[in-house]
Amino acid sequence: MKRFVVRLLINSVALWLTTLIVAGVSVESYDADDTLATVLTYLLVGLIFGVVNAVIGNFIRIVAFPIYLLTLGLIALVVNALLLLLVAWISELIGFGLSVDGFWWGVLGAIVLGLLSWLIGVLLRPIMGRSR
Prior knowledge:
By secondary structure, the chain is mainly alpha-helical.
């Protein structure tokens, strides 16, 4: 359970930093004036991102393994961008959350989000434990 909460926090903080860095990726809170509402929105979008990445992302990576080999992994940029766009679509159905301006903003956002998640994960590895 501790690992799940830490991963959720990593995704949420990385998403927040991504919205600060990438102009085409933003998160719209249901109450922009309330700080707690904004934090809860980032946590909810981080949860949606984690679930989509764990379930659909892993399925796509398994099914498309030959394409990953053929393109030397470059297809991962497209897959991650599409997963980010899927999270934006799901959060749009809720009425608030992630907004991505287009496919190429999704590619850039996915790259930045992946790098930030990795960096924060490396920094928090002693908290999460070594077993993976």
